[in-house]
Specification:
504 residues; alpha/beta; Cobalt-precorrin-4 Transmethylase, domain 1; Methyltransferase, Cobalt-precorrin-4 Transmethylase, Domain 2; 4 domains; 5-stranded mixed sheet; 18 helices
Length: 504
């Protein structure tokens, strides 16, 4: 085809970002334009290119940012412009996802497309609630149906009474608001009122809620609990397994609403670990990393690294910024020369390991003061040439103390920390509306920038700090730290949170 544009119709999975396919991630990374739905996890957007155009298509019940016809037209328009377009849809694009309609319009216009299946909530949701949709002891048949048909239809084409009497498990999407009418139709058709039913809301995420009942009482339970969409409903004897193999909702931090304030790029590790423990994580980055104002000066210092005795890193961001420039200047890692490397803590050491470099000096206590003391134990630093790779704004302890000891210290400004102004994931809006149980801070700058956002701080919100410098910043801003990590690292912070989970 002459037009190099293409549209990827991608299933984003049921909610848990870990259930996205490798191909889905590739399509997001490649996209010039990313069109995403209400049910696709917005944290996947961090995989997008920095300059990708992000378009929210809505598609929330009774609240469509764009109509389906407008979405189809948008996809066609962008592909015709020669763009790589990724259409990100919750679950699987071909299971009540209208991916077939979008594909048809692309075919009619002679445009290239690819369909990338995703894990559907029809199987993912029940699995995360401990409900196997098939089980040899109960059934060997699965029926999937929708409770929300095309609103332009004059009459329903779905025989709910017949579906209710179908053998095996029946899974329904998009029917919470009409559940009373649907179960009434099933009961009128002769379905036993004792038939087990389970509704799983926000399945596979930390917000997951499971409501169990029967065909006879589930509609009443939904009203009493204020249970709302999005939810998947499971009808059949397999629901009885929920109590026995409900693995996800039994995790130690399940349902705990925890805010992660690291940069969008760095939030992944902390968020992933908390989610594995069952937490409902919202990433609310308060800072982002920008290049230094004088990139030429930084590049010249990086170029001359081999002339130094010591290379000092006090953050993982500094390591990443350094090597991004280093490999633009040099093609061979050996060009770094015989310089020895010092770091302030294990997070920085771990980042260096990604570049296959070991650390020569790291203090037992992971703060700048301890690093200076570690140098003293190494012996005199007088007349030694040192390059400190640092942020534009940082504590001056390292520089001041090493200069006092007679070191010849150059400071390479590798990056700037600036306030994050975008709320791509909607976490900021959710925090304002719902609050949270716990907020985590991993640096002084995350604290200061969070305070600058001016967000209301819930009375019962607990605060977790990664270390003493961060804690100082929290207290300087008039707040109190409830959980302080003994080991000043992400694993140390998580361990402290687990030990203190009864506090929040």
């Amino acid at each position: 085809m002459k037009n190099k544009g293409i549209c990827y119709l991608v299933g984003a999975g049921p909610g848990d970002v870990g259930l996205a396919t490798l191909r889905a991630k590739e399509c997001i990374e490649e996209a010039d334009v990313l069109v995403y739905d209400y049910l696709s996890n917005p944290e996947m957007l961090r995989w997008a290119k920095r300059d990708a155009e992000l378009i929210y298509a809505g598609k929330k019940a009774k609240d469509h940012t764009l109509t389906q016809d407008e979405i189809n037209a948008l996809l066609v328009e962008k592909v015709k412009e020669g763009k790589v377009v990724t259409r990100l849809k919750g679950g699987d694009p071909m299971i009540f996802g209208r991916g077939g309609e979008e594909a048809e319009d692309l075919v009619d216009q002679g445009l290239a497309f690819e369909i990338v299946p995703g894990i559907s909530s029809t199987i993912g949701g029940p699995a995360y609630a401990g409900i196997p949709v098939t089980h040899r002891a109960c059934n060997a048949q699965l029926t999937i149906f929708t409770g929300h048909e095309d609103p332009t239809k004059e009459e329903s084409s779905i025989d709910y009474a017949a579906i209710g009497n179908t053998p095996g498990t029946r899974v329904m999407l998009m029917g919470v608001q009409r559940l009373g009418k649907i179960t009434d139709a099933m009961l009128a058709g002769g379905v036993s009122p004792d038939e087990p039913v389970a509704l799983i809301r926000w399945a596979t995420t930390g917000q997951q809620k499971t409501l169990v009942g029967t065909v006879g009482d589930i509609a009443e339970k939904v009203l009493a609990a204020g249970f709302k969409a999005p939810a998947v409903a499971v009808f059949g004897d397999v629901v009885r397994f929920h109590d026995k193999i409900n693995w996800f909702e039994n995790r130690p931090l399940f349902g705990k609403r925890i805010v992660v304030t690291r940069t969008r790029k760095q939030a992944g590790e902390l968020s992933r670990r908390l989610r594995l423990l069952g937490a409902d994580v919202y990433e609310l980055p308060t800072i982002r990393i920008e290049p230094p104002k004088d990139m030429l000066a930084f590049g010249e210092l990086v170029r001359d690294t081999h002339t130094y005795d010591w290379l000092i890193f006090t953050s993982p961001n500094a390591v990443e910024a350094f090597f991004e420039v280093f490999y633009k200047v040099y093609q061979d890692a050996r060009s770094i020369g015989g310089v020895r490397i010092a770091v302030v803590g294990p997070g920085t050491a771990k980042k260096l390991k990604e570049f296959h470099l070991a650390v020569d000096l790291m203090p037992e206590v992971h703060v700048a003061e301890a690093l200076v003391e570690a140098f003293k134990k190494e012996g005199s630093v007088e007349h030694l040439k040192m390059l400190w790779v640092r942020a534009e704004t940082t504590r001056e302890v390292v520089g001041e103390e090493l200069n006092k000891q007679g070191a010849i210290l150059d400071e390479a400004i590798a990056y700037r920390t600036v306030k994050e102004t975008e709320d791509i994931s909607g976490a900021r809006a959710r925090f304002e509306e719902e609050g949270a149980d716990l907020i985590t801070f991993t640096s002084a700058s995350t604290v200061d920038c969070f305070m600058e956002l001016g967000l209301p701080i819930p009375k019962d919100l607990k605060i977790a700090s990664i270390g003493p410098i961060t804690t100082e910043s929290v207290e300087r801003n008039g707040l109190e730290v409830d959980i302080d990590a003994e080991e000043h690292s992400i694993p140390g912070l998580i361990e402290a949170i687990l030990e203190s989970k009864e506090l929040f």
